[in-house]
Amino acid sequence: MINKNHSFSQVVVLRCHYIQQFLYSFTQKTVYNCTSKLENHGKYIIVRRPSKHLQPIVWYSTSDLFTAWDNFVRASSSLASSDLFRYDLVDVTRQVLQLIAVNYYSDVMHSFHSKNLTALKQNSVKFLNLFTDMDILLGTDKHFLLGNWLEAAKSWATTDDEAKLYEYNARNQITLWGPTGGLRDYACKQWAGMMEMFYKERWSLFLNTLIYDLQKNVSFNQSQFDKDVFNQVEVPFTFDRTIFPTITKGDSIEQAARIHTKYRIETRSQFLNRLKEFSSTRTKYSWTMDRQEGPFQTKIDRKWKGGSFEDNRINIML
Length: 318
Description:
Elements: H1 8-28, H2 62-74, H3 76-79, H4 83-113, H5 117-138, H6 146-154, H7 160-173, H8 194-216, H9 222-239, H10 252-263, H11 270-273, H12 275-281, E1 286-293, E2 296-305, E3 308-317
Antiparallel strand pairs: 1-2, 2-3
Helix pairs in contact: 1-2, 2-4, 4-5, 4-10, 5-8, 5-10, 6-7, 7-9, 8-9
C-alpha cells in the first residue's frame, strides 16, 4: 500500500507494480490459462497452410482479452521503461491481431461462396495488410525476430557450405519440418520476417487463386493449390538466403497504440466474442450480429457449415 512515507521513486515503483498485477489478472484467467482439453494451441489460422475449411481454435474469453489489451495500451506511458511490459504488450497485441484475422478469413470465404468478386478483393487486401502490421509490430521486440534464429544457426558454420546447410535446416524446421513437409507448421513461429515473407506469401497465393477461380467461374482445387504453395512458397523459402534483421526497428509502445487505434473496432463483433463457444463444442452453431452498412442496418446470421462460414443477410432500411 502506498502511504505518505514513501519517496517519489518508491511510489512510482509501487504504482507500476499494481498496474502490472491488474493487467496480468486478465491474461492469467484467459489466454494464459487453458483449463479445457482443447489441443493444438498455437495452430492459428494465419500460420496454417491456407484452405477453405480452416477452423479457429480459442480456449478463452476473447472479450476479456480485448479488455486486457485496452488496459495494456492505456498503461504504456507508465510502464514504458519496462522491457518485460513491452514484451507482453507486443505479445497481447499479436494475439488480438490473429483473432481479427479469423474474422477476415470468414469474410473472405463468405465473399467467395457468395461469388462477390469485389468484396473478395477488398477482404483479401484487409487480410494481407494485417500480416504486414503484425510483422512491423513483432519487429520492435528482439524476442520476435527471425533474423536471430537464422544467424544463430549460421554462427556454428566454419565454411559457406555449412552455413547454407545450417540455414536451410533452421528455415525448414520452422516451416516444413522435412523435405516433403511431413510435419508442416509443427514448429510455426510468429516472428518478424516470417509473417511478411512466409505466411503472407502463402495466403497471398491462396487469395489470388480464389480470385482467379471466381473470375473464371471454376471450382477451387485444394490438391492443386497444395502443390502450388509447396513449390512456389514453402520450398523456396527454405532454400532462400535473404538476411533478416537481428536488431529491432521502431517502438513497441507506438506500434501497439497505432494498431489499437486501427483495429480495436474490429473486435466488437459478436463473431469474435463467440469464438470460444465454437472452438469448445466443435459443432455447428449460429448467431446474429448487427452491422451498419450505409443506409441499412444489416442483420447477419452467420453459420459454420461444411467447414466454412455462411452468412444470411437481411437488410433493413433505416
